[in-house]
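[SOLVED] Need 3D model of a two-part complex

Original post:
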Amino acid sequence: MAKPKVALYWVAGCGGCDVAVLDTNEKILDIANLVDIVLWPVALDFKYHHVEAMPDGSIDLALINGAIRNTEHKKMAELLRAKSKVVVAFGSCAYLGGIPGLGNFVSNAEIFKRVYQEIPSNANAEGTLPQTHVKVPEGELELPALMDSVLTLAQVVKVEYFLPGCPPAPDAIMKLVELWATGKLPPPGAVIASDKSLCDECDRVKEEKKITRVFRSHQIVPDRKRCLLEQGLLCCGPATRGGCGQKCINANMPCRGCFGPPPGVVDQGAKLVSAIASIYQGNTQADIARMMDEIVDPAGTFYRFGLANSLLQRKRFPAPQGGSAK
Amino acid sequence: MKKISIDPITRLEGHGKIEIFLDDAGEVQNTYLQIPELRGFEKFCEGRPVEELPRIVTRICGV
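Solution:
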């Protein structure tokens, strides 16, 4: 019997998800015995026309990591969707937009200006910006265009499963592969992780949920046994799905939400604002103003990984400044 | 003029393509390396707290 076909692909990612697959160590050999890997750019050579030549629905499982940042990503996501029976948004970028989703706090015009015209290390005296079509003496060159906004994979194509994590842990990857190989995957739409919040799983001692001031992570050395939030460090645990193995918490660092919202929470950042507001012990306008000052980057903290997936999705700009609000 | 596209290049981490233009004799006339990838870390890191950057810029490349 022919082995099932698996594709691994990256769009706007960092390659960390691909390395996490390799971090399954010798179990990668089990995966390789179990399936035919038909596409994996980080490890195998292939060209786009090879994928185009595959019959529709011929790939049994596609694991796609990365956000959708440009038109090439969208095209490849659509192509792999057509070729695949099951598509998994693999990792926080594909699921939530991830760190590249922070690009939705700025406009494309601002990105181009900063990256190609202002950065001191640029050798670009003419201030040339990338063009989607460039005429050269020999013909024409084409580049993909940036999308107006960073999108999640599910905002572009139908996605059956979501595997959160930046990156997903090797044991979570093996669990996904095992569930799939044994036909035990939950109904489509499921997030393959815990159904509890990180706070519900966290072993730290929780006493009184009250804070009078917020600290930045370099300002205190937190007690390793006590709840970080109760010590005044902004921790995204109350609004983040568990199942991550608490790597950041165990390193005495507060959660930044890479597993996305827990079940029942629509907007991770809004939930965090609500959680922080409910434990803050401030009565006067001045108290509240002080706390607002102590939280130096609320949007970038509460939507660190999930901006593209949030109700806000992106910062809105008046039309003339560019960065249209699609 | 004939064009050979190597798209994507797979012997690197990330995304890239090479366009090779050949003349009528089949000799290489010119070659262009193109990098289609842009996420804009240089811009969207601005305004983020400095102590948070080690957990943001590590996602430039995770290989």
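Edit: The longest strand of chain A covers residues 59-65.
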